[in-house]
What we know:
Oligomer: single chain
Structural class: mainly alpha
Shape: globular
Order of helices and strands: HHHHHHEHHHHHHHHHEH
Strand content: under 5%
Low-confidence stretches: 3-14, 447-486
Strand order of the largest sheet: 1-2
Distance between the termini: 7 Å
Mean pLDDT: 84
Helix content: 55-70%
Amino acid sequence: MGFTRDEEAATKVPGRSLFRYNSPLVQVSLIGLVCFCCPGMFNALTGMGGGGQVDPTAANNANTALYTTFSIFGILGGGVYNIFGPRVTLAMGCSTYVLYAGSFLYYNHHQDQTFAIIAGALLGIGAGLLWAGQGAIMTSYPTPARKGTYISLFWTIFNLGGVIGGLIPFILNYHRENSETVNDKTYITFMCFMSAGALISFAILSPDRVIRDDGTRCTNIKYSNVTTEAIEILKLFGNWKLLLIIPAAWASNFFYSYQFNNVNGLMFNLRTRGLNNVDYWGAQMIGSVGIGYILDFSFKSRRTRGLVGVGIVAVLGTAIWAGGLANQLNYSFHRLPKRLDFKKSGNDFAGPFVLYFCYGLLDAMFQSLVYWVIGALADKSETLSRYTGFYKGVQSAGSAVAWQVDKNKVPLLSQLIVNWVLTTLGYPLLAVLVYLAVKDDSKSAEDADTASGLPPPASVKNDYKELGKSTPATEKDGSQELGNST
């Protein structure tokens, strides 16, 4: 089910419990569980370095195919979400994660990367749909004053998947001290979690059924169509606010290939890499909560909170990448390090372990900051689904390039410097965007606008079907959400 514009999107309804089924808290928690099971487990698998294989070539090629299609369907995903609604969109996306994990189970026995590459390309399509929907739910369901809190809530649940996913290979491969490839049980366990995520996606309500904590609907838009979405998606490329986000979006996943394959993958043995995954994704939970508090509660002015958040992430990011540089000077592709083990390497293990923790901390803070900025540009679900889809599309284009950079064995020091420069470039542009576009009142910069920043023409308005104005959101609505939502 998808959506359409209604003049009375801000009509208020009686306030009710935070824990009702159609509340932002429950719905954001549910999308967190979906991502716990699917992208969370995928992150744990990827974070092993080489997809859990001794040779990262298959994983690099699969990830290149993944992020190439992701870059396209991430941008298109917002339109698909607006037409079909969350259940169909998310379920289609989740199903492709199962196939991807299965392709590495196949590779464990046949050493043929064809299946992994095809599965990666299909996962790119599915991930584009999933993340566009996730972004819309996470940024549009909360009230404007609590978007940082809900982003933190989502990020914590989502990255708990990476923590649990990191424990799986750690436990199942604990006694395989000298092994370099994970066993079949690891991949099968990942597939079970991912299948559960696809089932949970059917519990997500469409935004026209969700009532915010202040009594407003997330949207009164119920149906959209291909023509409307095509027009609005094309307008994204002329939206100056989104153009300012491009460098940060490009950088926000670019460093994964370096960190997963060339820090965790090269410096540690198999069982320690599993432990490091717990470390990395656990750090993300801490980072998201910290930056979420700053962005929602540190100052009265929302613009000031945003600028302070950018400043804190910039300073912390500079310090962490400087630590990464000091670590990287110790090894290269031509001078590989001795594999570290968490039980046997003593003090040699401590420094790289803390650095990897800090990489995870920075990732969560950086991405949560960008999501908060995007969420501050609009409140309506149909607009934010397109904005977050655009962000994920650009992010994935950067990732596609990054995995090929790693495949072609670009010197490790060069990879680190490029990652440092890309993330640093994003900070001043985010600060400019916050200063110019983030408002201090409760209305977002584009609260009543379309993706272009301009009101839609009458012809486009007519492409939407409106919810009946005679159906207020009453207490009866909330009590019947579970049974009536389709």
